[in-house]
Design a protein that fits this description.
about 450 residues; four-stranded antiparallel β-sheet
Length: about 450
Amino acid sequence: MIDLSQFFKIATSKDHMIAELHYKEEYLVNRDSEITIEDIKQFLTGNHIVFGLHDDNIKQLIDGIPLEDFPIVVANGEEPVPGLDGEINFVINFNPRVEKDVNWNFREVMSIPSVENNEKLASITLPTEGTEGTDVFGNVVAAKPGKPVKINAGKNVRFEDEDLTFYANSVGQATIQGNFIHIHPVFEVTDTLSMKEGNLDFIGTILIRGDVPSGYMLSAGGDIKIYGMVEAATIKAEGSIFISEGLSGLQKGYIEAGESIQIGYINQGMVHAAKNVYVENSILHSDCVAGGELICQRGSIIGGRSSAGDMIEVKHVGNYMNTRTELILGQSHKEVEQIEKLSMKKQEIEETLKKLSIIGDKLSHTPNIELNPKLLATLQRQKTSYGQNKNLLDTVVEQLNAITNDTNERHAKLTVTGNLYGNTVVTFGKYKRVIDTSYKQVELELLRNEIYMRSL
């Protein structure tokens, strides 16, 4: 029997899923040698290639193939089939947002889901293990199992293993926060908030039937609904916030929501929503941040700074007196301020590191420094300080990258359905445009690194 190791060599892929046959110089001299299919298979078996042999390719090799067809695939492994991920199937609608259609009522923005005790909330399917594969050496290749559903029973929710289903343990409002399903009960104040109740910090939803005067603080793990007005108070909710009348903040009132905010008006206040802000009337001399949309369809934005991650839609911007008004699209102006601070801090640390490097170089090249304990101590302090500043610089750079990589200015849009007055500053990321004259019914967005304006 011919020793085929003189004619060929076998190469396998890194994952051992492909085996190829390469010819040697000896094969060029002895191409007329009689080689059988059995010879090739024995040669492969002798090199432990035992699975997925390509009979057709081996037969072509025996019949004779051009040298340019080498290397030839002689075996293929069977790839493992990954498992299916687990899924969650919601029985109730957890999305509080009302879909917009031609009959959309501006006031109908949020519809918080309410549930009864023992009501079914959601069910899950378990992940599968997948199907094992085999490489060309006959070894079993493990399949990647599917990922389980990352959702857990939170407050007032239980999970039943028998049917893989989540159930409510109380009457309340169902929300998903992070990886948990919660049922939040409601704390209700039937009149204007007063010293009778004091400041409120509640795990569920807070309902105020009257006003919230200046100086009070409300904090809710669920939603907050106020059917009056808010003065210079602090309102924080991990869910959504609804204020029937509005905020008269006297430059002290602060509202923050982990979801969306619906409000009548904002006057000299600070408003921050992780998702959307819906204002029925106007925003006056205020500081507003919306992670998604800022909608002010029937009113104006006059003065102050307002920013939105995705879109600002407003009737009028500024006024005939040309009051300076700033609109930031694609990211929060709070993030812009943070970027400026972090950039300055980064520059300061880099300058400090340069100075420390110069000091370290000088000390390291000092002759007989080991005989001078004072200089040795100074060198040690220099190394410690350099390491601390280097770690601090890495942290600052990481924070900067996290913010700058999360901008959306190229997909954001400003829509003005009424008047866009002069002395309005529109910013998309690092691009800024100052409006020096008035326009009517326009739309602005970032195109080819320029802020482009067109008529509606």
